[in-house]
Design a protein that fits this description.
Layout lengths: L2 E5 L10 E9 L2 E4 L4 H6 L4 H7 L9 E5 L8 E9 L9 H14 L5 E5 L5 H14 L11 H4 L4 H4 L24 E5 L5 H25 L7 H15 L2 E5 L1 H7 L2 H7 L7 E7 L7 E12 L19 H15 L5 E11 L11 E3 L5 E3 L7 H13 L5 E6 L3 H7 L4 E5 L2 H14 L3 E3 L17 E2 L7 H10 L7 E6 L5 E2 L10 E2 L4 H12 L5
Parallel strand pairs: 1-7, 2-5, 2-6, 6-7, 10-11, 10-14, 13-17, 14-18, 15-16
Antiparallel strand pairs: 2-3, 4-5, 8-9, 9-11, 12-13, 15-18, 19-20
C-alpha cells in the first residue's frame, strides 16, 4: 500500500521526486489551480504560459510533465488538468479531484515520493485527493518476471490463494519491466485538523480495501478457486476482527443448497458459502451484502464461445466487493451490523456438470429448470439470498457481474441498480454517484416474469432475451425474504477494465461497488439510509 501523509511543508521546500499541481482550463489558456501558487511563482508567474507552449489545455485528466525551475527541491513538476475553472465561490467537484489525483499517481509509477499540491479547501477535497491518489497508485505485479507467485507456492489452506501471499500484490520493485506503484504521497496545503486527518484515515482504509478487491479479481483462477477464496476471507477476518464462517460441500448438500451445488458440480473444486459478520455494540440496523463469487465461468455445458472466456476470472468481482466492504466496515468501526455472504463456485463443463434441462431444488425449496448453464450467477445468489433472508436484515443488497445485457444497456463504466423499493434504489444511486461510481436506476417490469415460466419447475433460470438484465433481477427477487428491503447491483460492465487505464481506474480488476457498499453502511450507521 502506498504511504500517504498530510504535510505542512511547502511545494517548493519538500524533497520529493515530483510535485503535482492542478491546472484549469481558462478562457485564454491553462490557469494554475489553488495549491499551485508557490510553483507558479517559481516559474516567474508563467506556469500557465509554459504549459500552453507544451500543448497543455487544462482539460480533465490531462497530465503534463516538465522540468522544475530553480527554487524547487523536486526535479519534476507534474501538472494535471482539472477542467473548466469553477464559478466564483465554487470549488472543484470531488470526483474531478479524485480522478486528477489518480491520473497523476499513475503517471508517477516507479517514483519513490511525490508531493501533491492540489486544491484542498475542505475535508471532502482532502478525502477525494487522498482516495484518488491511493487508487491511482495501484499496481498488480505479483506474476511479473518470476515474482512472488513463481517463488512462493504456499499452502492454500494457510495462505488463502496459493502463490499470492494471501491475495495481496507483491511489494517493492516490480519485475518483468513493470513499474512498481508510487511509494509515498505527501498532501500539501490541507488543514491538519481532526476533520482532515479523519478524511485521510478513511481514504487510506477505503483505498486499501478497494485494492484488496482488485487483487482478488486479478488473481488467475488457477490460484484462486472457491476454497482458496474462502481461506482469503478467513485470513482477512483474523486480521481485521470480523467473524468468518465457511460452509463446505458436505454441509451444503445436507442443507439442500441446490443452486450452489448445481453450479459447482462440474468442477473438481467444490463450492463454498462464506458468511462474514461485523457487529457493533451500538448498532441499530443490520445490512446483508451478498456477492456472486464464480471464480471461473466457462459457461458450463452451455460453453461460452471463443473470445468470451479470457477474462472470466473476474466473475467473482461481486464477492470480492462484499469481502472488501465488510472488512472496511470493521476497520472503520462503523456502528452498524453488516453480514456478508460469498456464494463461491467454479462453473465448469464435465461429465458431472449440470445439463440444460436439469431441474435444481434450491435452498428455499423452489425448483428451477436450468435452460442455460451460463446463467449460473443467479443460481448461486438465489441460495445465498434465501439464507441471508433468514436473519431478517433491515436491508439486503446483492452485487454481481450478472449479465452481458446490462453492459449492452449501460456500457462498460456504469452499473445498474434494481430494487423492490423505489426510495432505496434512488438512495443507492445518489450514494454511488457521490462515491465516484457511475450507476443508473433500472426498472423491474412485472410482465417479464412470464418468460421465466417453466412447464416442469417453479421457475426457469432464463426468460426473454430482450431486457435480459432486468429478467435476472426479477429472478433474484423471487428468493428475497418477505418484508426485506432489497437491491441488486449488476456490475458486469465496470468490474473489469479491458481497455486502457483512466483516472484512478487501472486496467483489469477495478474494485467496482466497494465504495458504494461502504457508503451505504455508513448511512445505515447514522440511521439516514431511507
Amino acid at each position: 500500500m502506498t504511504a500517504l501523509t498530510l504535510s505542512s511543508s511547502s511545494a517548493t521546500g519538500l524533497r520529493a521526486d515530483a510535485v503535482v499541481v492542478g491546472v484549469a482550463k481558462g478562457p485564454k489558456g491553462p490557469v494554475p489551480a489553488p495549491g499551485a501558487e508557490a510553483v507558479d511563482e517559481a516559474y516567474g508567474g508563467k506556469l500557465g504560459a509554459v504549459l500552453e507552449a507544451l500543448g497543455a489545455s487544462g482539460g480533465e485528466g490531462e497530465v503534463t510533465k516538465l522540468p522544475a525551475p530553480d527554487g524547487l527541491k523536486a526535479p519534476v513538476v507534474v501538472a494535471v488538468g482539472l477542467g473548466a475553472v469553477p464559478e466564483k465561490g465554487a470549488g472543484y467537484d470531488t470526483e474531478t479531484l479524485r480522478r486528477a489525483a489518480g491520473s497523476a499517481a499513475r503517471a508517477l509509477a516507479g517514483a519513490k515520493k511525490a508531493a501533491f499540491a492540489l486544491p484542498l479547501d475542505v475535508a471532502d477535497d482532502t478525502a477525494a485527493v487522498a482516495e484518488g491518489a491511493l487508487l491511482g497508485a495501484y499496481a498488480f505485479n505479483t506474476y511479473r518476471g518470476g515474482g512472488a507467485a513463481a517463488d512462493d507456492k504456499g499452502d492454500k489452506d494457510d495462505k488463502g490463494a496459493k502463490g499470492t501471499k494471501g491475495g495481496k500484490a507483491a511489494k517493492g520493485k516490480a519485475n518483468g519491466g513493470a513499474k512498481a506503484a508510487l511509494g509515498e504521497i505527501a498532501l500539501l496545503g490541507g488543514k491538519r485538523d481532526k476533520a482532515h486527518r479523519a478524511a485521510v484515515e478513511r481514504a487510506a482504509v477505503l483505498a486499501d480495501e478497494v485494492n484488496r478487491a482488485r487483487d482478488l479479481v486479478n488473481i488467475p483462477s488457477n490460484d484462486l478457486d472457491p476454497t482458496g477464496f474462502a481461506a482469503v476471507a478467513q485470513q482477512a477476518g483474523k486480521e481485521h476482527g470480523f467473524k468468518v464462517t465457511v460452509t463446505d460441500e458436505k454441509a451444503l448438500a445436507k442443507g439442500g443448497y441446490g443452486g450452489l451445488l448445481g453450479v459447482g458440480q462440474g468442477s473438481q473444486t467444490p463450492p463454498r458459502l462464506v458468511r462474514l459478520e461485523h457487529r457493533h455494540p451500538k448498532a441499530e440496523q443490520t445490512i446483508a451484502l451478498v456477492g456472486k463469487g464464480i471464480t471461473y465461468d466457462s459457461g458450463g455445458i452451455s460453453l461460452k464461445p471463443a473470445g468470451h472466456n479470457e477474462t472470466m476470472k473476474c466473475d467473482m468481482s461481486g464477492a470480492a466487493a462484499v469481502l472488501a466492504a465488510v472488512s472496511a466496515a470493521a476497520r472503520l468501526e462503523l456502528p452498524v451490523n453488516v453480514t456478508g455472504w460469498l456464494a463461491l463456485a467454479e462453473n465448469m463443463p464435465s461429465g458431472s456438470a449440470t445439463r440444460p434441462g436439469d431441474v435444481l431444488r434450491m435452498y428455499s425449496g423452489k425448483t428451477v429448470e436450468v435452460l442455460n448453464t451460463d446463467a449460473e450467477g443467479r443460481l448461486v445468489l438465489a441460495d445465498a439470498l434465501t439464507k441471508a433472508s433468514e436473519e431478517k436484515p433491515d436491508y439486503m443488497i446483492d452485487v454481481a457481474t450478472l449479465t452481458g445485457a446490462m453492459v449492452l444497456a449501460l456500457g462498460n463504466r456504469t452499473f445498474g441498480i434494481m430494487a423492490n423499493d423505489d426510495a432505496f434504489r434512488t438512495r443507492i444511486h445518489v450514494l454511488a454517484e457521490a462515491a465516484g461510481e457511475q450507476s443508473w436506476p433500472m426498472p423491474m417490469p412485472p410482465e417479464l416474469k412470464k418468460g421465466m415460466e417453466s412447464p416442469i419447475a417453479d421457475i426457469a433460470n432464463m426468460g426473454e432475451r430482450m431486457g435480459g438484465g432486468l429478467v435476472a433481477g426479477l429472478f433474484l427477487e423471487e428468493f428475497v425474504g418477505e418484508g426485506i428491503t432489497w437491491a441488486h447491483l449488476d456490475i458486469a460492465g465496470p468490474a473489469f477494465n479491458t481497455s486502457g487505464p483512466f483516472g484512478y481506474t487501472p486496467k483489469g480488476g477495478t474494485g467496482s461497488a466497494v465504495r458504494t457498499l461502504v457508503a451505504i453502511a455508513e448511512e445505515a450507521a447514522h440511521g439516514d439510509l431511507v
